[in-house]
Amino acid sequence: MPRQVSVRRYKDAAWHDVDDVLSREVPVRVTWDAAPGEAGIAAGSARLWAWPHGLADLALGHVLLDRVHPAVTGQEPGAWGIRHAGAVAEAGTGDELAFQVALRAVAPARAPQPPMPMPAAVLLDAMRAFMGEEGLWDGTGCFHRAGVYDPVGGRLLRRAEDIGRHNCIDRLAGWAAREGVELAPRLLLVSARVTASLFAKARRAGFSFIVSRSAVTTASVDMAEAQGVTLVGFARDREERFTVFADAGGRVLE
């Protein structure tokens, strides 16, 4: 849970003693085994900082997207193993939570199914469903969110929240790998700006239709155009607007 603290706030030319809420952020140690039969995928470990909830998906997604880079979605559920390995004392930060990821199998990549085209009104409906629910941002102002939207069923399949925007993508990828959900035909919705690094992580997860409530960068647009990815920014459902920065596939309809 968030931590409540007593602080001094300067507002309206006066000082006030008030209570405020801080998001918890903890160190997470992720270790992984070498993937069976996969040359070049060695065992290793990484240290992340994250919101301490639902960390199994975060750990699995981070390993798959940043360390292994297989086609992680659309496989049979249970293709990956993960266990909470306890807590390790970390000087100055409290306990470092530890997770062990066992890569039971790395299935060969399949031809991805592209996302279907979407009318503008439906795209805004997707963003409305994504941003309309209350979340960890409320009360803290500290969290990003990312979501998987199914254009066929017209519903939000999963939403992830974390302090780090890259962590949100890791959480979605971990969930998709565990559940055998293919991400390629779905939309990625994000609250954060789409930089080159976020774009690259979204692509490794399998997304080719990315919609952000925030800005995009020149690098992400160049990458989207080169890879045939639909990239939409400034998607604000309350203002009934968005900007299409790249859409070579013609997926955003009138």
Describe it for me?
Helices cover 24% and strands 36% of the residues. It has helices at residues 55-68, 120-132, 165-179, 196-205, 218-227, and strands at residues 3-11, 14-22, 26-32, 44-50, 81-90, 94-102, 118-119, 144-150, 155-162, 187-190, 209-212, 230-236, 241-246, 252-253. Residues 70-80 and 83-93 have low confidence and may be disordered.
Count of domains: 2
Coarse shape: globular
Helix content: 10-25%
The residue ranges in which pLDDT falls below 50 over 5 or more consecutive positions are 70-80, 83-93
Describe this protein with a few key phrases.
254 residues; four-stranded mixed beta sheet; 5 helices
In short:
By secondary structure, the chain is an alpha/beta fold. Helices cover 24% and strands 36% of the residues. The strands form 4 sheets. The protein has a 6-stranded mixed sheet. Strands 4-3-6-5 form a 4-stranded mixed sheet, with helices on one face. It has a two-stranded antiparallel sheet with strand order 1-2.
